[in-house]
Amino acid sequence: MDKKTVTTISYLSRLKIDNDKEEKIINDLGNIIEFVDQLNEVDTTEITPLTNPLEKTAKTRKDIVTAKNLKKELLEVAPSANEDYFLVPRVVE
Amino acid sequence: MSWETVIGLEIHVQLSTKSKLFSGGSTEFGAESNTHVDLIDMGLPGVLPVANKEAFYKAIRFGLATGANINQTSSFDRKNYFYPDLPKGYQITQMTQPIVEKGSIKIAVDDYEKEINITRAHLEEDAGKSIHDMFEGETGVDLNRAGTPLLEIVSEPEISSAKEAVAYFKAIRQLVTFLDICDGNMAQGSMRCDVNVSIKKSDDKELGTRAELKNINSFKFIEKAINFEIDRQIRLIENGECVVQETRLYDSEKNETRSMRSKEEANDYRYFPCPDLLPVIISDKELKEIKENLPELPEEKEIRYINEIGLDESEAKIISSSKTMANMFEAASSKTDDAKLVAKWLVGDISALLNKDNIDIDESNLSAENFGILIERISDGTISGKIAKSVLEEVWETASDVDEIIQSKGLVQIQDESILEDIAKKVIESNPNQVSAYKAGKDKLFGFFVGQIMKETQGKANPKAVNEILKDLLQ
């Protein structure tokens, strides 16, 4: 685990890391990875990867529209919206 | 040393389900903004997505029609990235176990045919829409489209020219519309495509570095964007520079591709299995049922039209090339005994009008129903072929009802022989010179008399009846 990896991960996850905590986080994450890496000692070549720990299969839906028009309610709870759209800071130059 | 082009296409096909892939939100196009948004589409805490089985059935139809493997157990993964029109911060897609793998489709380019292999086709949800130009300093987000089911069809990099890419896209569009899994409406974004382009020297074994062209939604732009990109890459390499692996945006106004490097910086989607969704199982019984109910495909139609209805090969090809055209043919044929007459109109006058306006039959004013009525009126003798032509032209311009045009313009064919005989007598009386010339052996003048009668009746006289009456009178 190095500074560059942590900077990339923090950018990808949009989590800001304070400068004075950076070293500790690099160290902690390194320890976590090292701990989890023990799993690599097990030979899994013959084992199908598990997609879900529940050994069940999915219930599915019929193709029916059930949703109500929640426009007003949804726009109301948004941090920023006008009467028609959710509003966010401009994302293109 | 010549350059070889290597192209792979990723086509996003919007599946024509009524509800979304994981929620009961409606997929209707063109609705008022943010009115088709379910709590699941919003990605609110505590909600659980449940897969829409119909989307699987539609994907399987595509798989069966392309001779692909159907994975009867398929699962979902999360593709993580941040963008305002993706409320959850990840897209649910199928990375490791796609529903469809290893199919192929035949394409036709100019004078040759080619088989293009399809690597996979997987289900995923669409994002919402960002509106950048309506608000000062802000972007508006409409989530109506968020969660709409898409089938992403990924080709092998086996396409070798812009022309082949267009032919491949057209073949896929034809197939998905015939399968009734997508409306194929490009203007509404029901089909969009990303194109991977690279070039290499003919004897190079390894592929060159590729650029990805994003979100192109018309046949014309696919061809232009690829050709621009090929030229750009050749120029780069011949100047001793390198092609960078990146995403590029095609600007149709300037006809150029531009780097979208800012988006590329952090291209790490950190896929992992979606813990909210269990694997979806398709039973043997379901698979069998889908197989048995697969609609008739273009090639099968073509063969049936030739063998059972007796159309020419070229007619059968044109009519079976589009679903709308085939539907029109079949609907109109049921209203007459003369299916070849129907084919003649579709391949002749209607195709000519389509070419003139450079449009697809789906974009024309002529509905299958109206065309059926037109054919019915020709075969029951209400109007002549010549009048039908002008009726068709009017429908083409105004989309009016065929029967209404015939009524309001008084175009009903004159069949009544006594009326026609009176008119014929009048014509003969007023043209004594032509009559004596005709009787003296100038046979060609027969057409003159027919023309005069047509003029008197504004083209409404039944030509067959006119011929018989004239023959009698001029003996």
Task: Give a quick rundown of the structure.
The complex is a heterodimer of chains A (93) and B (475). By secondary structure, chain A is mainly alpha-helical.
How would you sum up this structure, described in words?
With 93 residues, chain A is mostly helical. Helix content of chain A is 34%, strand content 4%. Chain A contains three helices and one strand, in the order αααβ. The radius of gyration of chain A is 22 Å and the shape is flat. By secondary structure, chain B is α+β, with helices and mostly antiparallel strands. Chain B has three domains: 3-286, no CATH class; 296-408, no CATH class; 417-473, Orthogonal Bundle (Arc Repressor Mutant, subunit A). Helices cover 41% and strands 21% of the residues of chain B. In chain B, helix 7 (298-309) packs antiparallel against helix 8 (313-320). The relative contact order of chain B is 0.09. The chains are: A mainly alpha (93), B alpha+beta (475). Chain A binds chain B through residues 8, 11-12, 14, 49, 51-52, 54, 56-67, 69-71, 74-75, 80, 82, 84-92, and chain B through 17-19, 23-26, 32-39, 42, 50-56, 73, 75, 80, 82-84, 96-97, 130-132, 134-135, 137-143, 266, 268, 270, 273, 275, 277-281. Strand 1 of chain A pairs antiparallel with strand 9 of chain B.
